[in-house]
Write a structure and sequence with these properties.
The chain is an alpha/beta fold. The protein folds into two domains: about 180 residues, Flavin prenyltransferase-like (Rossmann fold, 3-Layer(aba) Sandwich); about 210 residues, CoaB-like (Rossmann fold). Helices cover about 35% and strands about 25% of the residues. The protein is built from 13 helices and 23 strands. The strands form seven sheets. It has an eight-stranded mixed beta sheet, with helices on both faces. The protein has a five-stranded parallel beta sheet with strand order 2-1-5-6-7, with helices on both faces. A hairpin with a 5-residue loop joins strand 11 and strand 12. Helix 1 packs across helix 8. The longest helix is centred in the middle third of the chain and has 15 residues. The chain binds cytidine-5'-triphosphate. The site of cytidine-5'-triphosphate (CTP) has 15 residues, from helix 11 and strand 18. The site of cytidine-5'-triphosphate has 15 residues, from helix 11 and strand 18.
């Protein structure tokens, strides 16, 4: 159930740290990949060697890998690696540091760099756990989206009896499995997204292109990835960084995008075409720059393949296809005809006639038309928020 999930396990200085070895084992047994970061005080309770041996990967607890050479450990890379950052055990001290954003050890730096969801399994004595300060910290973290795995009640290392014992490794693994299923509803779904413009060369310096920025496709890739999907983004020439955890293939022309997209759709559950693919390419191109006097006065064009149409032609049972239609007028009829012609589940219409919508902007205003006749209109919002709305609709199309 945790197959291919990347769990970054953070261990902090509590006696419950000894259970972290069993936890790492249990997560791996269920298919997860585990990497470990430790605070210096947790090393008093369990050795990095134990965890490194169990997980088969080095354990990080320090900013420097090799003090003599000055090699440092990249906390940003580790922070971006995980599908979830599980801090177990999480001490009262660490919970408090998480609230204030303290960064006085390597684990806390990873915490600040991580973009994946953070989950903490507290472990402490009952009075520490009940203390108003700890309870306020837990509340503050939960308000910030950190999930807390409730500690158990029972005999504590102090000899006292009460709530504060870290949940058992098996219970934590069960909790994670359940969390991946409910919080990550697209768990294990493979999604391919085309994004950005294409550039069709005329000569070695000139091209036919358009103003697409790729922002909508990249926002969707991020949103779907965080909903648990395995996302493959095929992007034309855009000035955007690879979203973390997403496989990105960069292409230049419509033919290249078509070739990659046709390969990727074969194993995909969902295909989303946000790219503004050039419908035409120059019939003849020059490998060197044409000087002014060599430039033809007319450029003959060949038609490019329609990627989404070709996806639609070979759509499998249960596969979901989503298209975009950028129109310069209100374009409802045109969008609806593309929905049918390309065999889509739904099409997202945006119009350059709406201020703040379309190419290059950080916002978008969309309407959606579904194959089953339903339609939805949305207000102007950020492309991230639009990506969320589209994701929610995709969920309703998943085969039951
Ligand atoms: N599309 C595609 N490949 C193409 C052209 C379009 O995959 N060669 C996809 C776009 O990514 C979008 C949808 O088809 O999801 C509609 O694109 P659009 O350019 O609006 O439609 P066209 O079919 O090209 O129609 P027209 O240019 O006549 O409006």
């Amino acid at each position: 159930m945790l197959e291919r999930k990347k769990i970054l396990l953070g261990i902090t200085g509590s006696i419950a740290a000894y259970k972290a070895a069993l936890l790492a084992r249990e997560l791996q047994r269920r298919g997860a990949e585990v990497r470990v970061v430790m605070t210096p005080s947790s090393i008093e309770f369990i050795t990095p060697l134990t965890l490194a041996t169990l997980t088969g990967h080095p354990v990080y607890s320090d900013f420097t890998e090799n003090r003599d050479s000055g090699e440092w450990t990249n906390h940003v890379e580790l922070g971006l690696w995980g599908d979830a950052f599980l801090i177990a055990p999480a001490t009262a001290q660490t919970l408090s540091a998480m609230v204030t954003g303290a960064c006085d050890n390597f684990l806390m730096a990873v915490h600040l760099s991580s973009r994946c969801p953070v989950i903490a399994a507290p472990a402490m004595d009952l009075d520490m756990y009940q203390h108003a300060a700890t309870q306020a910290n837990l509340e503050a973290l939960e308000n910030r989206g950190v999930s807390i795995i409730q500690p158990d009640s029972g005999a504590l290392a102090s000899g006292l009896d009460g709530k504060g014992r870290m949940a058992e490794p098996e219970a934590i693994a069960n909790w994670l499995e359940n969390w991946f299923q409910t919080k990550a509803p697209l768990n294990d779904k493979k999604i391919v997204i085309t994004a950005g413009p294409t550039h069709e060369p005329i000569d070695s310096v000139r091209f036919l292109g358009n103003r697409s920025s790729g922002k909508m496709g990249f926002a969707l890739a991020r949103e779907l990835q965080s909903a648990g999907a395995d996302v493959h983004l095929i992007a034309g020439p855009v000035q955007l960084n690879d979203p973390s955890g997403v496989q990105v293939t960069r292409v230049e022309t419509a033919l290249e995008m078509h070739a990659e997209a046709m390969k990727a759709i074969k194993s995909a559950d969902i295909g989303i075409a946000t790219a503004a693919v050039s419908d035409f390419r120059a019939k003849t191109t020059s490998k060197v720059k044409w000087h002014r006097n060599e430039m033809p006065t007319a450029i003959e064009l060949d038609e490019n393949p329609d990627i989404l149409y070709d996806w639609g032609k070979q759509k499998r049972d249960g596969q979901i296809l989503v298209g975009f239609a950028l129109e310069t007028d209100n374009g409802i009829e045109s969008a609806k005809s593309k929905l049918k012609r390309k065999n889509l589940n739904f099409i997202v219409l945006n119009s350059t006639a709406d201020p703040g919508a379309g190419f290059g902007t950080d916002t978008n205003k969309i309407s959606i038309f579904e194959q089953n006749g339903k339609s939805h209109t949305f207000d102007l919002k950020s492309k991230d928020a639009v990506a969320h709305d589209i994701t929610q609709l995709i969920l309703t199309h998943l085969p039951q």
